[in-house]
Design a protein that fits this description.
about 350 residues; 10 helices; elongated; No apical meristem-associated C-terminal domain-containing protein
């Protein structure tokens, strides 16, 4: 715990517990501090997987999959600062508080974990910036002598542009290109020399390994964003489809109602036309002689109206049979009667 002060005001004795001092600021420019931070991540597979998980399913709880990023940052802080001569005494209260005061320990741990989090975030931004500035180099070059470093172009200028800001550990070594690449030997005088066996891959430095981790994390984040956008699009399309399906029953009812209305209107129209035909028929049979109107109608070729001499039963039969196949009339919209031509006229 923190410092204690005793205040005696008679009896009983009161003990005031003062909170421990905060973690304070941390200077990452000190020699070896950043390198130790990188080594603590790259050397520990669990910490590396916890802070920068590889693509695929996450680790189970038994293998540290249930720990939060803050817990991993605290583990890194312990590895970096516990044995440090300057910051070791400052982090010791947080280590001691885990046994005595878990609530206070949580606050102190979060303070140290935040330092690691901010430093890693800054290092990731710097590394990605250098990678973007350097770009792809060495593509298609087989021999070091093929590189003309005196030429002024994008390839030769990239290291010079990044050198003022980049750490020396990133740009301290030049591109190592073999004079004779493995598997390719110069042919002279029709003879060939067997290719030397391939050299084992060179072990990556801590900075190179950290750069690879940052790049892999960036790819994974981009993939996650694309998947999230695709899921949002699918959900929106699903919602639109469900809305259309919800409207479909009401549309079906509306279409059925319109169809029934059309049928009712058609039947009503036929009924009215039937009454009109019957009225005309009765008017033609009740007259004592053929009127000018009846004569003109009966004289029309193909007219269905019977003569005045027909009886009521004959007139009904004539109407039902259409006064013969050659005299049939077609009922069209707007109440018009168009007589069909006689067979002799076709």
């Amino acid at each position: 715990m923190g410092e204690t002060e005793m205040m005696r005001t008679g009896e009983p004795t009161l003990e005031l517990v003062l909170p421990p001092k905060s973690a304070g600021s941390c200077s990452w420019t000190e020699s070896g501090l950043t390198e130790k931070l990188i080594a603590s991540i790259t050397d520990d597979k669990d910490i590396k997987q916890g802070l920068y998980p590889s693509p695929g399913a996450h680790a189970s709880t038994a293998y540290g999959g249930g720990k939060s990023k803050t817990d991993w940052h605290w583990d890194v802080a312990v590895l970096v600062f516990e044995s440090h001569p300057k910051y070791g005494p400052s982090i010791k209260p947080a280590l001691d508080a885990q046994k005595n005061d878990p609530k206070m320990a949580s606050k102190l741990r979060n303070s140290w974990a935040k330092k690691i989090k901010n430093r890693l975030k800054r290092m990731g931004e710097i590394t990605r910036g250098y990678m973007e500035k350097m770009g792809e180099t060495g593509a298609g070059i087989a021999r070091e002598c093929d590189i003309d470093m005196t030429a002024d172009n994008k390839f030769t200028n990239r290291p010079a542009l990044a050198e003022p800001e980049a750490p020396k550990s990133v740009l301290s070594t030049k591109h190592k290109i073999e004079e004779t690449p493995a598997g390719k030997t110069p042919a002279r005088g029709g003879t060939s020399k067997p290719a030397d066996p391939a050299k084992p891959p060179k072990k990556k430095s801590k900075m190179e390994e950290f750069s690879a981790i940052v790049q892999a994390e960036e790819v994974e984040l981009a993939k996650t964003k694309v998947e999230a956008a695709a899921m949002v699009k699918v959900e929106s399309q699903k919602a639109v489809l469900q809305a259309k399906l919800a409207i479909l029953p009401s549309k079906k009812e509306e279409w059925a109602e319109k169809r029934h209305m059309k049928q009712d209107m058609k039947m009503e129209k036929m009924r009215l036309m039937h009454h009109l035909q019957m009225a005309r028929l009765q008017q033609g049979t009740s007259d004592p002689g053929p009127s000018s109107h009846a004569t003109s109608r009966s004289s029309m070729p193909g007219s269905f109206l019977p003569d005045a001499s027909m009886s009521t039963s004959d007139a009904s039969m004539s109407l039902s049979l259409g006064a013969g196949l050659n005299d049939w009339e077609v009922l069209v919209p707007f109440g018009m009667f168009l007589p069909l031509p006689h067979a002799a006229e076709i």
